[in-house]
Amino acid sequence: MKENKPTISNFSSHLFWDVNRDQLDIRQNRDYIIKMVLEYGLLSDWLLIMDYYGLDQITDASKTFRELEPKALAFIASLSNLPKENFRCYTTKQLTAPHWNF
Q1: 102 lies in some domain
Q2: 2 neighbors 52 (Cβ within 8 angstroms)
Q3: Measured distance CA(51)–CA(31) in Å, rounded
Q4: What is the pTM of this model?
Protein backbone atom coordinates (compact mmCIF):
# COMPACT_ATOMS: atom_id res chain seq x y z
CA MET A 1 0.00 0.00 0.00
CA LYS A 2 1.17 3.45 -0.74
CA GLU A 3 1.32 6.22 1.82
CA ASN A 4 -0.58 8.83 -0.22
CA LYS A 5 -3.90 7.17 0.34
CA PRO A 6 -6.99 8.44 -1.40
CA THR A 7 -9.93 9.58 0.66
CA ILE A 8 -13.47 8.39 0.21
CA SER A 9 -14.31 11.78 -1.30
CA ASN A 10 -11.97 10.93 -4.22
CA PHE A 11 -14.34 8.17 -5.35
CA SER A 12 -17.46 8.66 -7.46
CA SER A 13 -20.40 9.96 -5.46
CA HIS A 14 -22.72 7.10 -6.51
CA LEU A 15 -20.53 4.30 -5.11
CA PHE A 16 -21.40 4.39 -1.43
CA TRP A 17 -25.09 5.21 -1.46
CA ASP A 18 -25.95 2.60 1.18
CA VAL A 19 -23.57 3.72 3.94
CA ASN A 20 -22.42 6.90 5.60
CA ARG A 21 -19.43 7.94 3.50
CA ASP A 22 -17.90 9.80 6.45
CA GLN A 23 -17.54 6.57 8.41
CA LEU A 24 -15.69 4.63 5.72
CA ASP A 25 -11.99 4.08 6.20
CA ILE A 26 -9.81 3.19 3.21
CA ARG A 27 -7.93 0.52 5.22
CA GLN A 28 -10.60 -0.91 7.50
CA ASN A 29 -13.25 -1.17 4.79
CA ARG A 30 -10.94 -2.45 2.06
CA ASP A 31 -13.11 -5.36 0.94
CA TYR A 32 -16.28 -3.28 0.79
CA ILE A 33 -14.59 -0.53 -1.22
CA ILE A 34 -13.05 -3.01 -3.66
CA LYS A 35 -16.37 -4.79 -4.19
CA MET A 36 -18.27 -1.56 -4.83
CA VAL A 37 -15.63 -0.30 -7.27
CA LEU A 38 -15.59 -3.61 -9.15
CA GLU A 39 -19.36 -3.68 -9.49
CA TYR A 40 -20.31 -0.01 -9.86
CA GLY A 41 -17.14 2.03 -10.21
CA LEU A 42 -15.84 4.12 -13.06
CA LEU A 43 -12.38 3.87 -14.57
CA SER A 44 -11.18 6.66 -12.28
CA ASP A 45 -12.35 4.65 -9.23
CA TRP A 46 -10.56 1.56 -10.52
CA LEU A 47 -7.34 3.53 -10.97
CA LEU A 48 -7.60 4.79 -7.38
CA ILE A 49 -7.84 1.32 -5.87
CA MET A 50 -5.18 -0.06 -8.24
CA ASP A 51 -2.81 2.68 -7.18
CA TYR A 52 -3.50 2.22 -3.48
CA TYR A 53 -4.09 -1.53 -2.99
CA GLY A 54 -2.44 -3.05 -6.05
CA LEU A 55 -3.71 -5.96 -8.14
CA ASP A 56 -2.59 -8.65 -5.66
CA GLN A 57 -4.64 -7.23 -2.78
CA ILE A 58 -7.64 -6.59 -5.01
CA THR A 59 -7.48 -10.18 -6.30
CA ASP A 60 -7.07 -11.64 -2.79
CA ALA A 61 -10.09 -9.69 -1.54
CA SER A 62 -12.14 -10.63 -4.60
CA LYS A 63 -11.47 -14.33 -4.07
CA THR A 64 -13.32 -14.17 -0.74
CA PHE A 65 -16.51 -12.43 -1.90
CA ARG A 66 -19.64 -14.56 -1.64
CA GLU A 67 -21.30 -12.56 -4.41
CA LEU A 68 -19.92 -10.58 -7.32
CA GLU A 69 -21.56 -9.43 -10.51
CA PRO A 70 -20.66 -11.72 -13.44
CA LYS A 71 -19.02 -8.89 -15.40
CA ALA A 72 -16.95 -7.85 -12.37
CA LEU A 73 -15.87 -11.47 -11.86
CA ALA A 74 -14.87 -11.80 -15.52
CA PHE A 75 -12.95 -8.50 -15.29
CA ILE A 76 -10.92 -9.40 -12.20
CA ALA A 77 -10.34 -12.98 -13.36
CA SER A 78 -9.02 -11.70 -16.67
CA LEU A 79 -6.73 -9.12 -15.11
CA SER A 80 -5.35 -11.54 -12.53
CA ASN A 81 -4.94 -14.38 -15.07
CA LEU A 82 -6.83 -16.74 -12.75
CA PRO A 83 -9.68 -19.05 -13.68
CA LYS A 84 -13.11 -18.07 -12.39
CA GLU A 85 -13.17 -21.29 -10.36
CA ASN A 86 -10.60 -19.75 -7.99
CA PHE A 87 -13.15 -17.19 -6.82
CA ARG A 88 -15.59 -18.06 -4.05
CA CYS A 89 -18.47 -16.21 -5.70
CA TYR A 90 -18.19 -18.48 -8.73
CA THR A 91 -18.21 -21.71 -6.78
CA THR A 92 -21.04 -20.72 -4.42
CA LYS A 93 -23.46 -19.42 -7.02
CA GLN A 94 -27.09 -20.15 -6.34
CA LEU A 95 -28.29 -23.39 -7.84
CA THR A 96 -31.51 -21.87 -9.14
CA ALA A 97 -31.62 -18.94 -11.49
CA PRO A 98 -33.10 -15.70 -10.16
CA HIS A 99 -36.53 -14.62 -11.35
CA TRP A 100 -35.12 -11.73 -13.30
CA ASN A 101 -32.22 -12.64 -15.52
CA PHE A 102 -30.56 -9.42 -16.66
Answers
A1: no
A2: yes
A3: 15
A4: 0.84
